[in-house]
Amino acid sequence: MTTFNQQKETLKSRLVDLLGADAVIVDSEVLHLLSTDVYASGPIAALAVCPRDRQDVPRVVQLIGEHGFSVIPRGGGLSYTGGYTPDHMKSVIVDLRRLDKIIELSESDMIITVEAGVTWKQIYVALAPLGLRLPFFGTFSGALATVGGGMSNGALFLGSARYGSAADMALGLEVVLASGEVVKTGQAAFANGVSFYRTYGPDLTGLFLHDAGALGVKTLITMRLIRAPTVTDAASFVFADMACAAHALSVVGRSGLCEDAYVFDPETTRNNLQGSDLQKSAGRLAKVMATEKRWIRRVSQAIKLLRGAHELKSSEVFSLHVVCAGETRRGVDGDLDLLRSLLVPFAAKEIGSTIPTAVRANLFEPVNSLVGTQGERWAALNAKLRHSQLDELLLNTDALFARHAKAMAQHGVTFSRLCMAISNHTFSFEPVLRWSDEWLPLHRSVPELAYLKNVSEPPPNLLARELVATMRAELVALFAEMGLASNQIGRTYPWFVSLNPVTARLVQDLKNSLDPHGVMNPGALGIGTKIT
Fold first, then answer.
1. In the chain, N or C terminus with fewer CB closer than 10 Å?
2. Bridge partners of residue 71, in order along the sequence
3. In this predicted structure, what is the pLDDT of residue 278?
4. What whole-number distance in Å separates Cα of residue 324 and Cα of residue 506?
């Protein structure tokens, strides 16, 4: 009977023959890094592979399965829900970041096809000179986050208030199954077909979206493009409490007037403003001012930014930030004026648009915020709800935080809330817990070295860590009880067990058909480690 180490060595040898020694990772520190995310850690994968050619991925997946190991697809690695953290050591991380080619960019057809390891920033930079853009065009972490990861886990933020999530613009996929077979979806699935249209018949593309890699390894994605708006402007408003700000966001989201619309509570605002120095602020002002043609608007914009930063720093306020975009200054100004009129019933006070303007002027910055300015860590969750469910969710989450307030104060755990509009029919609520604790490998490797030089890694804080785990579990249970949705499901949300029996059986049958031996990312979506 062969031992685990013998099996690992045999598989390693086969993978080296296929990919070359530099594409097969055996170093324990690197494997630790690749096997943990922003929050979750557990068993460390036996090996990792970094294919450079997507044509090698089918054979890679086939070899891993044939040797009795699990396939764990990984993109940019910024999950906080255990999306790619192995359930057991007999696993191989398939790191897709080297699959970073833009395969087709067609201005005449308004589509782009990219490999799974391409980042949102890479696409934005490639499209900008052509005056083109993706509808949803990236996350805060878009400098590192990959398209494959976003399609597997529900990427959101830039453009989401109008255009939804990454999945909403997908037109077709290429997916490697556990057997090594390759499935194509959308129009490319047909004889003589090319990728441009998603739903000629049943939506097979949708089957593989938001699957956390449980059904296959995405290697190619086709998405639709739009003309980049020629005019973009922002506004910010403050409110006395969370409920008022959240309901104002609900009204704004339902209006469909914005590309971005989000609410920060005071703690979120502090975390976003901390660490900004005069040099960085000046750089942001310069970028914003350079986009304005008239000197009067340039001066006005600079004053707005400085005034907004002062008001946010000096007040305990809940702030709503919006970005409107269009083809004419008159049209964008009209949209902003209409938004202002919608907010009159909420006694909104408009302040300088420091935060949304700075975000849009400095897209895809380094992901230094993975570590707080005091060295603290964070762990986020999210819930997607109907607008009509907002009051119930706020009431329930406030009660949960109040229940743990004493323990949180004792162990130094704080919380903040980020709310977003997604299209015009979905409200997104994201609670974030922060605490001082030793770092995981990503905390040491992702932020810039210059940033990390100014912060110190805290000692282990087991009691705070346990409290955070308890609160996360209670929040997840609350979301499930309310029947809410989540993106970036990973191994955190009880997705599979929450399905009604008929739907669960359909999913089980699909998993059995595509992955009869439970090779693909076992545990993701809560489906289990082996399908019988």
1. N
2. 92, 520
3. 36
4. 41
Give the closest residue to 472 by CA, choosing from 379, 365, 386, 391. Answer: 379
Cα–Cα distance measured from residue 181 to residue 172, given in angstroms and rounded to the nearest whole number: 17
Rounded to a whole number, what is the largest CA-CA distance in the chain? 79
**Cα 146 to Cα 152: distance, rounded to the nearest angstrom:** 10
Radius of gyration of the chain (CA): 23
Task: Return the residue matching tokens 């999530």.
Answer: 165
**What are 481's two structure tokens?**
């009880």
pLDDT at residue number 489: 95
What span, in angstroms and rounded, lies between the C-alpha atoms of 3 and 24? 20
301/306 Cα distance (integer angstroms): 9
Are the C-beta atoms of 427 and 248 separated by less than 8 Å?
A: no
Long-range contacts of 268-271 (CB under 8 A, 24+ apart): 268/416, 268/417, 268/418, 268/432, 269/312, 269/317, 269/319, 269/355, 271/369, 271/372, 271/416, 271/434
pLDDT at residue 508, as a whole number: 94
Q: Which two tokens stand for residue 459?
A: 């000692």
Per residue in 132-180, pLDDT (tens digit) is 999 999 999 999 999 999 999 999 999 999 999 999 999 999 999 999 9
Tell me the CB-side half-sphere exposure of residue 137, using CA atoms within 13 A: 24
What does each C-alpha distance from 221 to 169, 190, 277, 344 come to in angstroms? 10, 16, 39, 43
User: What is residue 400's predicted lDDT score, i.e. its pLDDT?
Assistant: 98
- Rounded Cα distance, 447 and 275, in Å: 14
| Helix, coil or strand: residue 431 | strand
Between helix 278-290 and helix 295-314 the angle, nearest 10°, is 140
Reported as type and span, the H/E element at residue 58 is helix 57-66
Of 176, 358, 369, whose CA–CA distance to 271 is shortest?
A: 369
- Burial letters for 83-101: b for 16+ Cβ neighbours within 10 Å, e otherwise? bbbbbebbbbbbbbbebbb
Nearest partner of 353 among 245, 234, 271, judged by Cα: 234
Which residue ranges in the chain fall short of pLDDT 70? Answer: 273-315, 528-532
Rounded-to-integer distance, Cα 496 and Cα 525, Å: 6
